[in-house]
Amino acid sequence: MNQIRLITLLVVITGILFLSCNKTKDGQFKVAMLAEGNTFDDLSFLQSCKEGMERAKTDFNLSVEYNIDTTTNMYQQRINNFASQDYELIIAIGYMWNDAILEAANSFPDTKFILVDNELSETRNNVVSIVFDVDEAAFPIGFLSAWWAESQGSDSPKTACIGALKIPQIRQFIEPFNNGVNYYNSIYTRSVDTSIVYAGNFFDSELGVHLSDSLINEGADIIFGVGSETASGALLKAKQRNIWGVGTDVDQFYSFPEVADFMLTTAEKGLDNSIYEVVKSFTEKKFNGGSTYHGNLENLGVAIAPYHNADAVIADSIKTKVESIKTEITMGNISTGW
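Above: the chain sequence. Below: its structure as tokens.
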């Protein structure tokens, strides 16, 4: 009996020591959030991720380290650095972290990982992926934008999209948006034109300014900016040219007040809420490793932001149709084409 008690005591002590090495002296879990870029305060995607993490930090008493860098060849080194320092949860933002997480998940099986905005290419029991069905929001916004372009009085109404990179995460906004424009044309027998440009860079606001200016010179009546700082530059130039814009990720009427007066709406990702919920599951020891969290219209993981200053001028019939399209998408009766 004494031997059994001794073994039990050793197991308990071992467990306590294991947990303590992953926590600070104050008993906080050590969490790291990693990203590629210039700043987490980008008025869009990364800022929303940080806001969700900050809320979780406060609510669950976490010790959080933020790490951001523009280098593109140190993903493995950066993620291993935190895992080797006994960070128990590591959150990596973006598709570019896929391979680094795969290797780190094998090398550090007791560490939990979250991959944001991409589904891990191979299942790992200590990784949760977070993805967003943004096409479900982009399609009805494309429909709305087509109406908006036509309402501006141009003889050749036109929508324009500026994407950072031609990757699935950006295309999932832009292509369904254009399909929404085409849907508007088909049901109202119109011919609103579309234009797409990819900048090749997430973090070049000046390039976004230049591309937006060029598209407006070519007749664009509304600019859909997709992709961090490049998109921010595009929307800022649109506002300066008195052209309305559509944002992404977070309601840019609030996050980017410099363009608020000319924001039609935003195709929102629930980045903050989704990150918060998965981090919460980790703190409650309910981390569902090997799974993928999907944000969509039905669970409010994606959404169309309020119309704010544009609300009074959008026709009620168009507002009603947008809501109808959202319902039909959720029910599977309308395909976004993605």
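Residues 135-269+307-331 form a domain with the Rossmann fold fold (CATH 3.40.50.2300).
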